[in-house]
Task: inverse folding
C-alpha cells in the first residue's frame, strides 16, 4: 500500500508541475508572460490552434489533479484507519482494580446509578407549605371596606 501511495504522490507532483508550466505558457489577452516562454515556438509546435490545445491540456491536468487528490485522500484514510500506537498501548494495559471493584459513592437521598437488591426506594416528602394568609386590600387599590 505504501508503494502505491508513493507513486501517486510522485505523479501528483508531476501533474502539478505540468499544470503550472501549461498555465504559464498560455497567452493572456495582454500578451504578458505567455510570450516569455516562446510564443512563436508554441505556434510552430501546436500550429495555429495553440490556445485551444493549451486550454484543453490545462483542463485535463486539472481533472487529473483533482482525481489524484481524491484517490490519495481515500487511500491515506484507509491506511490510517487502524488503531494508533497510543490506542494499542492503552487497550493492552489492565484496568485498575480499585476503579472496577467499588461503585461510586452517592450522596444520601439521591438514587444510585446502579440499583442493587438491598437498596430500598427513597420517598421524598414535599416541601412544607410556607404560604402566609394574604393581607387585605392594599393601600394603592383604594379604601378598604370594613364590616
Result:
Amino acid at each position: 500500500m505504501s508503494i502505491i501511495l508513493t507513486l501517486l504522490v510522485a505523479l501528483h507532483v508531476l501533474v502539478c508541475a505540468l499544470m503550472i508550466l501549461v498555465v504559464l505558457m498560455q497567452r493572456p489577452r495582454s500578451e504578458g508572460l505567455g510570450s516569455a516562454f516562446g510564443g512563436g515556438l508554441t505556434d510552430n509546435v501546436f500550429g495555429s490552434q495553440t490556445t485551444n490545445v493549451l486550454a484543453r491540456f490545462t483542463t485535463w491536468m486539472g481533472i487529473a489533479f483533482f482525481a489524484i487528490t481524491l484517490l490519495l485522500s481515500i487511500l491515506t484514510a484507509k491506511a490510517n484507519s487502524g488503531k494508533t500506537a497510543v490506542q494499542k498501548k492503552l487497550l493492552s494495559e489492565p484496568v485498575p482494580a480499585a476503579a472496577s471493584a467499588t461503585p461510586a459513592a452517592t450522596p444520601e437521598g439521591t438514587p444510585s446509578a446502579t440499583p442493587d437488591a438491598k437498596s430500598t426506594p427513597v420517598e421524598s416528602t414535599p416541601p412544607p407549605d410556607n404560604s402566609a394568609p394574604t393581607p387585605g386590600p392594599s393601600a394603592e387599590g383604594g379604601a378598604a371596606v370594613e364590616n
Q: What stands out?
A: The mean pLDDT is 73. The helical segments are 2-25, 39-46, 50-79, 85-92, 97-101. The CA atoms of residues 2 and 79 lie 9 Å apart. Residues 2-25+38-80 form one domain.
